[in-house]
Amino acid sequence: MLTRRAATTALLVLSTAALPSLTARASGPDGSANGNCTLFSCGVEVTVPGSGGGKGGGNAGGGGGGKGPKPKPPECTPAEKVDPQPDAGSDVWEGQDPAKGAVLYIRTCRYFDSSGGSTMLTETFVGGAAGPVVPAVDPAVLAQRAVDQMVLRGPQIGIVPKPGGLGLVGMPVYMWTERGPETYGPNTASASAGGITVTATAKVRKIVWQMGDGKTVTCTTPGTPYKAAYGKKPSPDCGHRYAQPSLTGPYHVVATSTWSVDWQATTGQSGQITQTRQSTVDVRVGELQAVGSS
């Protein structure tokens, strides 16, 4: 949204016909502005400080973390025709010829950063009588912006033997994750700009479990939570057995989720983005030994 200070800056650009160039500056408790202006172009930046970024959240079961807030999309005023138009020899035409219908337009945009601050810029575009030629929006960029809005975490680990308990060599180990939108999907977000909307949907494709004993287990399902009724039966879809006790310390288990993010744009374009997230947990494994009697 165009602020009073930005409106004044834009007015300076359009109302200095008697001056070949000027320097625009403004300041106040909510920010500052500075830049160099000529009659038909202006590089003024108005910066408003933010309140600082947020902290990411941790994952259940150990490692991994969330992200801080992402910048909002830029806010731009509608482009307006510059009046009067600059001379045909001005550099602002960038090779376009006003004699052949080229028209100069101007707009003001506020660009946000992740700390909550913002920078306001005045921009010029060359177009025809029907309107300015605004730079095209890349759907892949919007797709990444949609992904940045999501909270994608590592697995919310469930494992037997439980952390703090003691498993036994040779007994089945069950591994699984809770099936939330942030830990397994689906997780959906959209981003829009320039009349284009991209919708992205993220799902976990696989979880690779590094069991801490040199073995790796790849699971393409979230896994099956263990129940006492299963007894000594192995996990039907995501399990392991330790062959040696953890004598020098617990086994450090690292679970890495691979997220596949499929995106679709209103232009008909589509694509896929891959993300990975990790969580960790420690488990202790002992060995059952028979004690003889005399």
Description:
The protein is mainly β. The protein has two helices and 20 strands. Strands 1, 2, 3, 6, 7, 8, 9 and 10 form an eight-stranded antiparallel sheet that branches. The N and C termini lie far apart (89 Å). Mean pLDDT is 77; it is low at 1-48 and 50-68. Residues 1-26 form the signal peptide. Keywords: Signal. It comes from Streptomyces filamentosus. Residues 53-68 have a biased composition (Gly residues). Residues 53-94 are annotated as: Disordered.
Break the fold down into its secondary structure elements and pairings:
Layout: H1 4-14, E1 21-28, E2 31-38, E3 45-48, E4 58-59, E5 62-65, E6 75-76, E7 80-81, E8 103-112, E9 118-128, E10 131-132, H2 139-149, E11 157-160, E12 167-168, E13 172-177, E14 187-193, E15 196-210, E16 216-219, E17 239-241, E18 251-265, E19 270-283, E20 285-286
Parallel strand pairs: 12-20
Antiparallel strand pairs: 1-2, 2-3, 3-9, 4-5, 6-8, 7-8, 8-9, 9-10, 11-13, 13-17, 14-15, 15-16, 15-18, 18-19
